[in-house]
Amino acid sequence: MEYLRRSLLKTVALALSAGLAPLSQAQSASAAGPIKLALIEGLSGPFANAGEAVYRNILWAVERVNARGGVKLAGGTRLLQLERYDSKGQNEEALSALRSAIDDGARVVLQGNSSATAAVLLDAIQKNNDRDPARRVLFLNYSAVDPALTNERCSFWHFRFDAHADMRMAALMEVIREDRAVKSLYLIGQDYSFGQAVLKEARRQLAEQRPDVHIVGDELHPLGRVKDFAPYAVKIKASGAQAVITGNWGNDLTLLIKAAREVGYEGRFFTYYGNALGAPAAIGDAGLGRVVAVADWLPNVPGAQSEAFYQSFRQRFPKPADDYVHMRMQLMVEALAQAIEKAGSTEAAAVAGKLEGSTVSLSGQSGTMRASDHQFQQGLTVGVMEKLGSPGVRFDVEGSGYGFKVIRQIPASKAEMATSCRMVRP
């Protein structure tokens, strides 16, 4: 926590020097005590790199709110304080972290790097909020994209700021539908709720939009436990598949793509997360024009506001390996800060009521939290991997020399999907 304390002091100092927060605001924020946000994420273990990337993004968003004086409430302004809880990538550890966070006074929980963990936390938070109204907790989800979380398992206390797996698949299908050279596909994913959902939706959407495409492979592998993907890569190459669809993330994606390169596979990869966390560097020149990724935003999205946003993140985190930036996480923290101010309270139900239906904008990007299921509605972007400096690629990722050229921008109105949620409100 010493690093966090120094970071908060530095933020206030910067705000004062820039004239962003009057002294009285900083004093009242300090006197009132911070609003604690609990990040429950795998910060060690096989997906630690993904957890640390999340932490950098949310820390930057918190710093930005604090730099303008914090969150304005009737009793004065209050700073946001981000606290880290390491789930070690294990559900039981995540539940233990949740209990600790609540005992420590956090009333907002942030998590996303596992839909299985999100489901476990969601159930625990629902039970906590039913049994202990004085310590109700909000759950802000930035990456757990199993569609069930805002459909049959939707909860008043849960808000998802990422597009769910079906929405992302529909965006990728915009490209696959027009790529008539692709006649055969291999489906591969992680064996848990999200990975299963991706493959299920790939089969459904392919049947509807590209019935001429043959699925020549369809398999799941253990989550975070495969160290050598060579056997999988050999099967992909031997299948004759012209392309691969995968929802893999973290090291499971990096190692898969690296193995494919090493066995000489030359097909395309349609991915959810192929745009960073080591994947571009792992595949190298073999991925040029072949690795496709879908995201809520990419660094090479055209426009001065988008460019300034990315450049400011790089100034805050100048190390190239740390430049995996998520627009949606910035929008999430902004939406939370605005909801607290509108509610005039940090009480979970009051803040949730203001998050419902809220619209938030930042650096030319915007989105609206749909009240019916708490699924954030935003545009999606599809990019293809190319060399830094090629047309449309001003910025690379992680100093790899490779970036993603924007080839599709899908507006929120087209990315939106129906929901089966039947929201139960307190």
TrEMBL record:
Protein name per its UniProtKB record: Branched-chain amino acid ABC transporter substrate-binding protein
PROSITE patterns: TAT (PS51318)
Swiss-Prot/TrEMBL keywords: Signal
Family: Belongs to the leucine-binding protein family.
Xref: PANTHER family: ABC TRANSPORTER SUBSTRATE-BINDING PROTEIN, LEUCINE-SPECIFIC-BINDING PROTEIN
Signal peptide: 1-31
Species in which this protein is naturally found: Curvibacter microcysteis
Domain Leucine-binding protein: 34-385
